[in-house]
Amino acid sequence: xxxxxxxxxxxxxxxxxxxxxxxxxxxxxxxxxxxxxxxxxxxxxxxxxxxxxxxxxxxxxxxxxxxxxxxxxxxxxxxxxxxxxxxxxxxxxxxxxxxxxxxxxxxxxxxxxxxxxxxxxxxxxxxxxxxxxxxxxxxxxxxxxxxxxxxxxxxxxxxxxxxxxxxxxxxxxxxxxxxxxxxxxxxxxxxxxxxxxxxxxxxxxx
Length: 206
Prior knowledge:
Blueprint: E1 4-6, H1 15-22, E2 25-26, E3 30-41, E4 44-53, E5 58-70, E6 80-86, H2 98-101, H3 110-131, E7 140-148, E8 154-162, E9 171-174, E10 181-182, E11 192-194
Antiparallel strand pairs: 1-6, 2-3, 3-4, 4-5, 5-6, 7-8, 7-11, 8-9, 9-10
């Protein structure tokens, strides 16, 4: 299905409430209800949708993915748009929360099964990343692979030091041989081990 754009959210509090309402309805033969939904990023909506067929009494809970564009200041007035895809279409977006995945009923769709597996793998990776210890001043950090910096130098082991109070980032990484200081963005995206904390040193830059 293509993109649908509109000029208002029809009184709903936001994109999530609007999409919940779009997929919650009753018809003579079918009752559809969003059991749980979430935005993992502002542009992707995930939901577990229950579909009950009155004539057969069958109940299926499937995964819905919507690509979202929301711009209340759109110059042409089309402030909200979305494109919906169900899990049997093999969506590329695979960051569905486990709380939604846990509500889904069994399926024999290979595309859906592969998609659910990818989502589970990504959820496990997010958990592992969140549980990684945060480097703290006084510790040494050893990377599984050398980290290369803009000055051409690379290091496997560095010292974690505190930046000056009020400065960001809160910690810097020091070259253990020459004493140079470096900033590493998204440190938890790297594989590393932390050594025992030593006496903390405050970095002072004048």
